[in-house]
Amino acid sequence: MTSPAHPERERIARYEPTEIEPRWQARWDEHGMHRTDLDDPSRPKYYLLTMYPYPSGDLHIGHWYVNTPTDARARFLRMNGYNVFFPIGFDAFGLPAENAAIKKGIHPSEWTLKNIENMRRQLRSMGATFDWDAEVVTCTPEYYRWNQWIFLRLLEAGLAYRKMAAVDWCPKCVVVLAREQVEGVDRVCWRCSTPVVKRDLEQWFFRTTHYADELLDHSGLDWPEPVRVMQTNWIGRSEGAEVVFRTAAEPHHAGGEELRVFTTRPDTLYGATFMVLAPEHPLVPALTAPDRRAEVEAYVAATRRASEIDRLSTDREKSGVALGAHAINPVNGERIPIWIADYVLATYGTGAIMAVPAHDERDFAFAVRFGLPIRRVISGPGVADDAPLTEAWIAKSAEDRLVASGPYTGLPSPEGFRRIVADLAARGDGAASVTYRLRDWLVSRQRAWGTPIPVVYCEAQPSCGIVPVPDDQLPVRLPDDFRYRPEGGNPLETTESFLRTTCPGCGGAGRRETDTMDTFVDSSWYWWRYLTPHKTDGPIDTALESRWCSVDQYTGGAEHAVMHLLYSRFFCKALADLGVVREREPFRRLFNQGQILGADGERMSKSRGNVQDPDELVSRYGADTVRLFLMFMGPWDQGGPWSPTGIDGVHRFLRRVWTILLDPHGREAGDAGGPESEDPAAAGLALRRAAHRTLAAVSQDHEGFRWNTIVAKLMELTNLLMRHRGTPVAGTPAWDEATGLLLVMLAPLAPHIAEELWSRRLAEAGTPWRSIHTEPWPAADPALLVADEIDLPVQVNGKLRDVVRIAPGTPEAEVEAAALASAKIRANLEGMTVVKVIHVGGRLVNIVARPAG
RNA sequence: GCCGGAGUGGCGGAAUCGGCAGACGCGACGGUCUCAAACACCGUUGGCCGCAAGGUCGUGAGGGUUCGAUCCCCUCCUCCGGCACCA
Q1: CB within 7 A of strand B (chain A, 778-807)
Q2: Do A385 and A246 belong together in one domain?
Q3: Can you give the distance from the CA of residue A679 to the C1' of nucleotide B46 in angstroms?
């Protein structure tokens, strides 16, 4: 590297990020620069939240992709005068720790805490401004105690309750399986390949449906439209009616049982030609005729092996079985057969539908498959009332009207809807009703590595039943000594020290609940805990919550668009109603960054072996280069497969900045004659203009998280400075202004190199050190943003033919005259007649012309 | 399958109130420096035709609206995220 032939380049030290970066990180720590004074009233607050990571063991490049741009925003906002709170923590309960524990025979807590230790170190190497004093680790009793406290409050409020629900069960491992543990189309256990079965268990739920309508309301939230749409569809509000059918008497069944169906189209009630129950519907056994029993039971068993995604696939051929029973249509007394089919879900509506094949696609497919009657009861304008149907007729127009519907025949469809519902309601055979696709949140997990659900089953005689653990006995701690047994099962069920307790009600024998909570519970309120992570007399400091919430900006992956964000919104509303917090919405503004995939285009995971280790890149290029490269790769919301191609370009850019700042007068061997001939004053003005244009654009790009274009613009400015290096412009006040702005603009993105060069600049000027990260973000000078001439494209029939140079504000007529005067344009208009001239002010002129004659 | 998103040079991407497609970077090619190489710096770089001037095609495919479409509408293809026990 030291060639005597290059004396110029030896004047400055080489850019050595591995030397610079740890030095500044230590200095920032010493100065406590990133500890937020939550009580500072002098500056406006800004709560910047990034989704906390799962401590999987090693940081991969995806963590950098998620966190370093957010850190750039934190730094940018501080320079803009905000008191920024930017905390970090660990989402520390979950399945991988249990898997590791089973594999290595260690306690999941040991595995988790070790991972956290390593990840803290790696996170620090980003040079991110996390406030580590606020750190939260959800697997600590200090944290999960308050999960339990919140659970108890929800229980008291009737927002937590128990009911039966089906789980996927591996009979061989004797465990409940997560969805990702059920593999393949034949749905077998990931460990032992045993076919998975459904098992019904009594489980705990949170009543998210209580807030369904409020959750549909996203007003006042600055969230990406796709997320709002996905949540709206997920909640899936449907307005319709419940209609009460009754079962008919059969040799095997007395009849008269109520069968409630939910329908969004009560106006098609006369078209119901059969009824379909979910195979899990409680009346199925009673309704099944003896000669159908074998077939029905086989079908129910088969359904319980299928996933919901398969069941709802419209791609698949419809399947089902008739029960050999009938229902009576309340409007016309008609007997229609009752079937079961897996496309009807027990968890939606009433678990039963009236099938109107003429006007529902799924029912149509089912009727065709099984030869069931299809009866048109809605027709449109210009269509015969009995026109045959080749597909379901779904609300073709506002003028649709009822046909073959008894007294309702001829009514417009909406009117028929209202009248039929009103008449059913008057007779007690139905009522208008709203159903949601959203289900209550099943929070029970049959796992050992999670928050114990704080209830006790009293085993005294007489029994107190299910007794909540009193607040003063919280936390219910996980045992330190549980063992995963080779024969499987939830270890909590066999850990006597945990299991055996006394009933808080009567003091008699009691058994602890062994279900733990879904880890989404942890992540549904962690941002409040960041404000006071060690508070012991409650989960949340209300005064700080009032002051700091809602979160001003939340950033995280789009994979959380629905569940995590919806659960968090549910928690916020429930806790607001309980008086624990004041705000009803947790996150005012949301941004979804994309995901970095492995080089193979698949999600990065250890098992796939496609994980990119950032440490390696950091030691080779430095954190600043890695940060900048991730921001430069493309739009932040896009993500994409990992490829290091191009990281050298970003590194070269930083080296050029280094060279420009430390050696402004140097020349490189390959430099051309250079712009010495240029007028230095004019060049200086051009430089200032470029710097201020860059500043204006960069400031704007920050608001939209457009890191890639910020970096590109800084590169352009740098290229311009490079051209003036070694010319009389270098070292002038214009040069100093431009290089100063460059450093300030670079500071949020590449904080170490900016700080280093800034400190040298201050030292050279004899000014005492002040961190560049406390510099105020400058405002662009509007006078320098206006160009003194514009190159205006001129088109003929939409094709670019010439460019004319005009002064801004030139009157339209003059611009058009100039365009028409151009020799190239005249040549293109040869033999043509100008039809019209379209002039988009300051943007372009388009001359529309036709062949003459 | 359903819901949501994305397809632009050899590669990552830029430009969307409908107005110069390809900014910036990688790679490649040529040059300066060097005994040489590396580094650094300067220049060229969408395809096709042309010595050039210039022309022409071109933003996943096909159609439409418009003076003008990467951008709006319709149909289709591919990939990514989610689908309720991964986080």
Answers
A1: 791, 793, 795, 797-801, 803
A2: yes
A3: 36
